[in-house]
Design goal:
This protein is α/β, with parallel strands linked by helices and 316 residues long. It has a single domain, classed as Rossmann fold, CATH 3.40.50. The longest helix has 21 residues. The two termini are 20 Å apart. Bound molecules: NADP nicotinamide-adenine-dinucleotide phosphate.
Length: 316
């Protein structure tokens, strides 16, 4: 994109954020508020950043929020702070990389609440900033962002409570994981095509892609292959999350009325958090907005298998 193109894109983004700021002032009407103070929303990695903001905003809309974090002290202190503001927030430890932690969380949420209505998979890691592109931590990045998200979804789906409004799963992802991203995509055209075609998309295909990257990282051959050029391991992990979101939407599509589960993903934008070294062009509050908007979509507008940014659907 040339200098002028970048300038125009920036102006469009600023304009859209102004529009969203206006939209956020409009309160939800009673007919659109499908949730209540009994609606249970679980947010992973919510002790800071975008996850914290999603938890705070959902609680501000009157939901019961389970704020989870891998570090119990940090998570508890964060939840205490939100409760101090009068919000209905409870802390529970959850490390998305730790099978025992997931198991114990799943039992607890089932015993205490009879399950959950909303799951936000926000926990994530990225070890690169700026122009860096090291794959030193590729295994951890894939294990947290993709495998962790997948494991949490698989384990918690049976605990999702029946509801006439449908229960909801949201994966916090990134435009860096777009199949046909203009500047950052997998070079293999066949793989791109397979990822986009419903009858080719499978868990084996997605797992195969991430395994292939990790194998090449071990062999030291990844750089000469056609992987996304920016934050390679992170971009592939988010491409996997996006593809898995579409796959799960299809798997969940046949559930009967009253047992529907809607699953979507979104990109929060470039947000000033610890992950970006506090660089970015949006605050965590703004970055959380589209996520909260998708989760709270009125029942008639609820949708599944989509990718969003700035309160609009975008292409995978
Ligand atoms: N910031 C951006 O520009 C941007 C853009 C696109 C997408 N995203 C996505 O947004 C999400 C939140 O990122 P952020 O920017 O808010 O970054 P952040 O401030 O670094 O927050 C990441 C959160 O994930 C938690 N986490 C990491 N590994 C975990 C694990 N194994 N189990 C449970 N929690 C774990 C972290 O916990 P600790 O505090 O214990 O480390 C932290 O709470 C991520 O999925 C990220 O990929 C961010």
């Amino acid at each position: 994109m040339g200098k002028q193109g970048k300038q125009r894109a920036k102006e469009r983004r600023v304009q859209r954020l102004l529009e969203i700021a206006e939209l956020r002032k409009i309160p939800y009407s009673p007919v659109d508020r499908w949730w209540s103070s009994e609606t249970v929303a679980v947010v992973t990695g919510a002790n800071r950043g975008i996850g914290y903001e999603i938890a705070r905003q959902l609680a501000s809309h009157g939901l019961c929020v389970i704020l989870t974090a891998r570090d119990a002290d940090r998570g508890r202190a964060t939840a205490d702070g939100l409760r101090g503001e009068g919000l209905n927030v409870e802390f529970r430890q959850l490390d998305v990389m730790d099978a025992d932690s997931i198991k114990s969380f799943t039992k607890w949420v089932g015993d205490k609440y009879g399950g959950l209505d909303i799951l936000v998979n926000n926990a994530g890691v990225n070890f690169n900033t700026g122009a860096d592109n090291s794959v030193e931590f590729a295994e951890k990045v894939i294990a947290t962002n993709y495998v962790g998200t997948k494991r949490i979804i698989e384990t918690l789906i049976p605990k999702m409570r029946p509801s006439s409004s449908g229960s909801r799963i949201l994966n916090v992802s990134s435009r860096l994981g777009r199949v046909n991203g203009r500047r950052n995509r997998v070079g293999n055209a066949t793989l791109r095509e397979q990822l986009l075609k419903d009858d080719c998309l499978s868990e084996e295909l997605i797992d195969g892609m991430v395994t292939n990257l990790l194998h090449q990282v071990k062999e030291g051959t990844w750089a000469s292959n056609d992987w996304p050029q920016m934050f390679t391991d992170y971009s592939v992990s988010k491409l996997a999350v996006n593809s898995y979101t579409r796959l799960m939407a299809r798997r969940l599509a046949d559930r009967p009325e009253g047992h529907k589960i809607y699953i979507n993903c979104y990109c929060p934008g470039w947000v000033k958090t610890a992950m970006t070294g506090w660089e970015g062009n949006a605050t965590p509050e703004v970055g959380a907005d589209t996520g909260v908007w998708i989760i709270l979509l009125p029942s008639q507008q609820a949708t599944t298998g989509k990718f969003f940014a700035e309160r609009r659907e975008i292409s995978f």
